[in-house]
Amino acid sequence: MKAATLIAALMLVQPALFAQETAADSVASKLVAMENLWNQASKSKDLKVLDQILDEAFVYVDFDGRLMTKAEVLTDVKASTMDQVVAESMVTHLHGGTAVITGIFRMRGIKDGKPFQKRGRFVDTWVFKNGVWVCVVSQATLLQH
Amino acid sequence: MRTIGSILLILATVPAGMAQGTAQSDSDRIRLLAMESAWNQAVQQKDLKALRMLLAPELVYVDHDGKVMTREQYLADVGLIAKRPQQVASESMVVHVYGVVAIVSGVYRENGVREGKPYSLRERFTDTWLHRYGSWTCVASHSTRIGN
After folding, report:
1. Into how many domains does chain B fold?
2. I need a surface site. Which of A12, A44, B131, B133 has the fewest CB within 10 A?
3. Whole-number Cα distances in Å, B17 to A68, A96, B9, B76
4. What ipTM goes with this model?
5. How many angstroms separate the Cα of B93 from the Cα of each of A76, B107, B112?
6. CA B53 to CA B136: how far, in whole Å?
7. What's the CATH number where B130 sits?
8. In this structure, which CATH number among 1.25.60.10, 1.10.540.10, 3.10.450.50, 3.40.1350.10 belongs to the domain A3-142?
9. Where are the alpha helices (DSSP H) in chain A?
10. How far apart are CA B103 and CA B25, in angstroms?
């Protein structure tokens, strides 16, 4: 399935369906799928998908502590030389229409002609807004081992 | 003024839901910035009772080393006898309000003495606050170290 189709399927949750969806596990699974899609879109530089996942006022803090807007993140992804980015050990904390996801990311790529690998902790906050889940804040911190 | 008194004053002075739309968002922003300041004051004074009023029981706290802590683990860390913060402050704070959810980002500075040695921290943070049961409570906080 194309990423754009998948994101549409994941995001177009009708409010009525959301109201009936009492199983928090279902929402958590959906959000974990969106996290994976985010990584996939970052790797394939699919800015259209990222545009749908990230809120217009999205706030991102990268592992260097750099504060970035959504536009800056999209520009960064476009210029990126990552060939792998995956998330693991994800835990979803659901608070009604708000979800906090913690996890560990691993990324690999080539920068200035040299291979690099990074591993870090992330925390993302998602909000159910206008019938879809969007990420409003994401922050990363490198892990030493 | 003791920290807990400050927090009660913050909670009491701007009743939630008093105004609508932009006015409500503005009052939420002011209140959240005051709560962030109260948090810093409580850390400096090791006022764990005040911190319990600000932080949700299910708080997820990620420190600058990437360590994930529960609220009780975070409180234990703040309460360490060997750690004595002398100056705690936040700057460049920006608040984004999404109805009952708010994100506060900013730069946190802390310096003091730990195990007899001076330390200094400068971190970028993002906090996720949730409005429930009539007040704001922090459900997630993440810090990443930045240069001085």
Report:
1. 1
2. B133
3. 31, 19, 17, 34
4. 0.86
5. 23, 7, 22
6. 9
7. 3.10.450.50
8. 3.10.450.50
9. 3-11, 15-20, 24-44, 47-53, 70-79
10. 12
Contact yes or no for A121 and B62 at CB 8 A? yes
Structure-token pair, residue A144: 């030493």
pLDDT, tens digit (0-9, with 9 covering 90-100), for B56-95: 999 999 999 999 999 999 999 999 988 899 999 999 999 9
Q: Which of B100, B126, B144 sits opposite A137 (nearest CB)?
A: B126
Share of chain B above pLDDT 70, in %: 84
Mark out chain B residues that contact chain A at CB-CB < 8 A. 58, 60, 62-66, 68, 94, 96, 98, 100-101, 103, 105, 123-126, 128, 130, 132, 139-140, 142-147
Q: What is the largest CA-CA distance in chain B?
A: 51
Domain span including residue B98? 3-145
